[in-house]
Each structure stands twice: as C-alpha cells, then as structure tokens.
Design brief:
Strand 18 and strand 19 form a beta hairpin. The protein starts with a helix and ends in a 5-residue tail after the last strand. Strands 16, 17, 18, 19, 20, 21, 23, 24, 25, 26, 27, 28 and 29 form a 13-stranded antiparallel beta sheet that branches. The protein is of the alpha+beta class. About 40% of the residues are buried. Helix content is about 20%, strand content about 35%. It contains nine helices and 29 strands. The protein has three domains: about 250 residues, Thrombin, subunit H (Beta Barrel); about 100 residues, PDZ domain (Pdz3 Domain, Roll); about 90 residues, PDZ domain (Pdz3 Domain, Roll).
Length: about 450
C-alpha cells in the first residue's frame, strides 16, 4: 500500500506541476475554411462519438455565416514553453484560424494571439501571447525516453478542459504516412487516452518533463495515440520563433533501411547496418554528386547511421549548400562522398512520363523485356536519350512487376557494371548468377534508383 500511495502521489504531483503550463486553445475559423480531417472522413461511420463532435463544429460554423461575431468552432491544447508567452501546439489546431483565444488554468484569457509560425511537415505550430512571468513547462530529452515508462497526457478532449490521463510509452520510432502531408519524423506511441481536443497538448513523463506533443490518434478507444518527440518539437519551434518558418535540408534521394531489404541484404557482405540509396531524384542536390543507387550510407560527418530516421534527423538541420561527408559502402568498397544538401522543395516534380507503347522486345529476364534505346523509342516513351537499355514490357505476376518496374524505365547498370547498349547488357547478364540475384540500376519516374531482382522461390 505504501508503494501504491507513493505512485498515486507522484501522478498528483505531475498534474499539479504541469497543468499551469497547459493552455486551452479555441479557434474561430475563416468562413470558407473546410478542414480535410473533418469532412468526408469514412471513419466517421465507425466512430459515432467523433462524428457527433464534428457535426457540432459544423453547426457552429454554419451559424457564423449570419453572425458578425467570431464563433469559436474548433478547440485544441497547447503548452507554454517560455515565460514570455511562447506556446507550442499542433499546426492542424490553428490551421485556417481567423481568430484564436487562449485560456490558462488560472482563468487568464488572451484574445490577441499571434501565430509565429507553422510547419506542416511536422505538424508543429508556435503561438505568442503578450505576457510575462507565465508558468513554462520543462521540455525533456525525448531521445532518452524508454518504452514502458509512464506517460501522462494533459489537454482538453471534447471540451473537457485540463483532463489528465495516463498510460505508458508503447513504442518509439513509429513512422506515420499521410496522403495530405509528408511527415518526415518518427513518433512516440502511447496508450494514454488521447481524443479530439488533446491535439497540441503535452505528453509528460513521471518527472513532469514534456516528452512529446500529442498529435494523432488511430481510432477511438483503441489505446493507440501518437506524439511528436519533444526534441523535434523544440528544434522546429526554435526556428519558427527565430525565422517564422522551418527550413529543412535534404539530399534528394529515396532511402530505405538495409535491415528491411531482404533481397539486397543477402547480396551485401561489407556491412549489416545502414541506409540504402534506393533512388536519386532528378534535379535534387545529390544528382550531380558521386552518390549512386544501391550505395549504403553508414555515417554522416563521422556520426554512425543505422536507420532512415537517423539519416533524416542528421541531414534535416545541416546548413543549406554546405557539404556533408557520407560514409558509403558500395559493393566491397568503402567510400567517402560529399554532397551539398539543398532546401526541401514544396512538392516533388514529375520528370519522366511513361506510356504503354510496347515495341517488340529483344531480351528478357525476371519478367523484364528490354530493347536498345533508340531516338525513336525515347520519343515514343517520352524519356530522355541516354546510355542504357529501355524496358519495353513487364510480365504480369513477375518479379519485376512486384518490384514496381514499368515500361519506359532505362536500365543503366547490371551488378554495378555499366551497360550502354544491348551487347553490354547481354554480357553483364551472362556474367551474373541469376540464382543469387541481380542488382540493376534504373532511370525512371523521378530519377535514378536500384532494384535487386531474385526469383521468389529463394
């Protein structure tokens, strides 16, 4: 019982310590604002509580059409990160806001709220209120957070202000994919109860340190919620406060974890960990570098890299235009390659279009049929003429189809041996051991990439 009482008291102390730094954010949206997360969502039929909540917001929004006063039809949470009035929250909480109102636990209210900056890719936003001496939360080091430790969420779910729920850190390094925005960071997963209105509020540890900013849920009452790690939130917030935007550096490459690429991993002996360069995007910073598809990046400026997220985190804040040194494994060689990071563009540009023209093939392997790349074929497939052979047909159900290889792509290398024409292609293929698999480099939609091909019966 003594241990239970101590734990009970610990939770009480955390709530007392952190709640004064938590804010409730009410948002009056612009009249023409339509939140894509609210309207047309098929999950509403599965989640009646959420549907009712959103329908109430729609009703308020319709009422605003005939009212001169702002109607606060959206709500979220936030956390004060400095005594002079900077508040950390989610971008989606304040998206489309015409007016924002912030409430503190002691009843203080601020109507003159400024959005200092938003970052859609991380879903982080920073607000500013004109105040001094506010109670600020302490941001913890989320890299030291352990799976299994207590996690406490404080926020305003369903307009129930300053609700406190607790659970555990269920997982780290979760990657979330969204059709609406590219989210380039990993997340903390928690089973602390998080609901609409908790967004932007803090996830804290038993010491009362903010380890994450609550941002996503997967269904209602599932015990699956996600929070932006505090280290990333602070990194983004600091730059938003300073510059009004967060500038990301990138290399312009498609990447994957070596540990997850079974077919290719079996072809590699020089390293067991690292990040595989799957493609090099046309027009990206790495296009003119010595980096090649199928290279394995093991370090950035001497710091070891084991996963995609490690690489992204290291590159993200590098100075634009200043070279970084990558440790690279290529076959049985270890290289050091310099690349000048560029600024992440707003959107990717499609640079190669494929069509369905299928001229007679001259050679085939793993379901791929290829032909010499002539000027006529380049025009018919709408690709640039270059050294290599062009894929003219991909058999249904073949290894190549499963790898996503399409007609119109150009094969430039076979097992790291350049192939400029059909003769070189056939020689390279003849020298390859098809049972062990073949590594090919291609130029396709978006740029260069590689694919390991091996019979499915391996």
């Amino acid at each position: 019982m003594d241990v239970a009482r101590q734990l009970n008291q610990a939770f009480i102390q955390v709530a007392d310590k952190v709640s004064p730094a938590v804010v409730v954010i009410r948002v009056a949206h612009k009249a023409d604002y339509a939140n894509p997360d609210e309207e047309g969502n098929p999950f509403f039929e599965m989640l009646p509580e959420l549907r009712r909540h959103m329908e109430e917001q729609f009703k308020k929004r319709r009422q605003r059409q005939s009212s001169r006063e702002p109607i606060y039809d959206g709500q979220g949470s936030g956390v004060v990160i400095s005594e002079d009035g900077y508040i950390l929250t989610n971008r989606h909480v304040v998206d489309g806001a015409e007016k924002i109102r912030v409430h503190l636990k002691d009843g203080t209210e601020f109507d003159d709220v400024e959005i200092k900056g938003v970052d859609p890719q991380s879903d982080v936003a920073v607000l500013k209120v004109n105040a001094k001496g506010l109670k600020a939360a302490r941001l913890g080091d989320s890299s030291k957070t352990r799976v299994g430790e207590f996690a406490i969420a404080i926020g305003a779910p369903f307009e129930l202000d300053y609700s406190v729920t607790f659970g555990h850190v269920s997982a780290k390094g979760r990657r979330i994919f969204s059709d609406r925005v590219m989210m380039d960071q990993d997340f903390l997963q928690t089973d602390a109860s998080i609901n609409p209105g908790n967004s932007g509020g803090p996830l804290v540890n038993i010491d009362g340190e903010v380890i994450g900013i609550n941002t996503l849920i997967r269904g209602m009452r599932t015990g699956i919620g996600f929070a932006i790690p505090a280290n990333l939130a602070k990194e983004v917030a600091d730059q938003l406060i300073k510059d009004g935007k967060f500038t990301r550096a990138w290399l312009g490459i498609g990447i994957g974890n070596l540990s997850e690429l079974k077919d290719y991993r079996e072809m590699v002996s020089a390293t067991k960990d690292g990040v595989v360069v799957g493609s090099i995007i046309k027009g990206g910073p790495a296009e003119d570098s010595e980096l090649r598809p199928a290279d394995i990046i093991t370090a950035v400026d001497g710091k070891s890299i084991a996963t995609v997220q490690h690489l992204k985190s290291e590159i993200r804040t590098k100075p634009i235009g200043q070279p970084v040194t990558l440790d690279v494994v290529r076959g049985d060689r270890k290289l050091k390659i310099k690349v000048n990071p560029g600024e992440v563009p707003d959107s990717d540009t499609q640079v190669v279009r494929n069509n369905k023209v299928q001229p007679p093939p001259e050679s085939a392997f793993f379901g791929i049929k290829v032909q010499a790349l002539t000027k006529d074929l380049a025009e018919r497939f709408e690709v640039e003429s270059t050294d290599g052979v062009i894929v003219t047909e991909v058999e249904a159900g073949s290894v190549a189809e499963r790898k996503g290889i399409k007609p119109g792509e150009i094969i430039t290398d076979v097992n790291r041996q350049k192939v400029s024409n059909m003769k070189e292609f056939k020689e390279a293929l003849k020298a390859a051991d098809l049972k062990k698999g073949v590594l090919i480099n291609l130029i396709g939609e978006g740029g260069r990439r590689f694919e390991p091909l091996k019979d499915s019966g391996d």
